[in-house]
Each structure stands twice: as C-alpha cells, then as structure tokens.
Amino acid sequence: MKIAIPVDDKSMETSVCQSFGRTPYYLIYDTESQVSIFLDNSAVASQGGAGIKAAQTILDNQVHALITPRCGENAAKVLMAADIKLYKTISTSIKDNIAALNNGKLSLLEDIHPGFHGHGG
Question: 0.85 exceeded by the pTM?
Fold first, then answer.
C-alpha cells in the first residue's frame, strides 16, 4: 500500500508537518517494498487552493492512504472522492506513524477543518 505523509524535510528522521497543503515535502512510502520517495510540494507557495493542489499531487502518485495531523475540507473532499483513506497522526515521528498504521492503530481523521481559504496558510 502506498501512503503519503506531509513532512518538513527529505529525510525519514524529519518531523511530520502540521500543514497538509503547505508542507514543504511529501513522503510517499510503500508499505510492501518499504521504498521511500520524497516529493517537493509545488502548492506550498500558492496564493490559494494549496490543499486542492496538494490533494492532486497525492492522487497523481496513486496513494491509498494519507497520514496527517489535519486536513482542510476542500482537500479532504478531493481525497475521499478518490477513495483515499485519511488517518490522523499519533506523533511527529514518521516511523511511529507508519508502524501504527501497519499495526492497525491509527484512527481515521475526523476533525476536518474549514481550511484557510484566501489566508495564505
């Protein structure tokens, strides 16, 4: 299964980023092959619609699940329409969150916020 996590840097040792749409990078991690790929988030500098653009990046990479601390409603609608599961992080550790997902210990993300429309972050 391919998962995505918003991260602060291109390293497995970095922290999970608190913002899905404005994260600097995404980790795309394959739970079967254990291959990690880091993608630049082209939506980070967007005037608006960063969450939707970020969601499109996730779709384009054929991800099955997203692990994130929070997600705006517009991005969440795009992701859920594509049948991508949204999970809430348990910590800022990438490895802890991947392990929790693999062990069935992550909860679905339920606190979808209205987003920061027009506020630039």
Answer: yes
